[in-house]
Amino acid sequence: MYPENAPHAPVQRAVEVHQPTPLPPAVAMPAPVVPVQPGTVPAVASIVLPDGRIVTGYAIEPTQPEPLTAKPAVSRAAVNVALGGVGFLAVCSGLLLLTTFIAALTALITQLIILAAVIFGGWIAVQIFCASGHGGGTTVNIRKATFKRNHFHG
To answer: Are the CB atoms for 146 and 153 separated by under 8 Å?
Structure first.
């Protein structure tokens, strides 16, 4: 951050020293001392650490949580009825969705058939109405026709 070959000398600044101000001692009312004998003397435990130090202290009893209030047991019959109801609801909704899907598929197929009939019918109509104008169709003159089966020869 600072170049090693700085051409100027570092700047010296004035330093202010702040001394802490001592607080006057608080006047406390001494609490009345009531001698109380402990019910039991806690056991003192000492352990030796791996580096050779000894740590001594009182053993602390773990606090026991308050027992929870017992919940009433749910009968197996109630659970089975509830699960059966959920299963029945799932089956009914699945059948409803299946029925809806089949109805939609039927409507789609019906519309496709109608569309094909309209397109094919339009094609037939174009063939019929446009055939006489082109002269490309076959014209049969009935007066000159020969019926071989009925032995009619004209």
So the answer is: yes
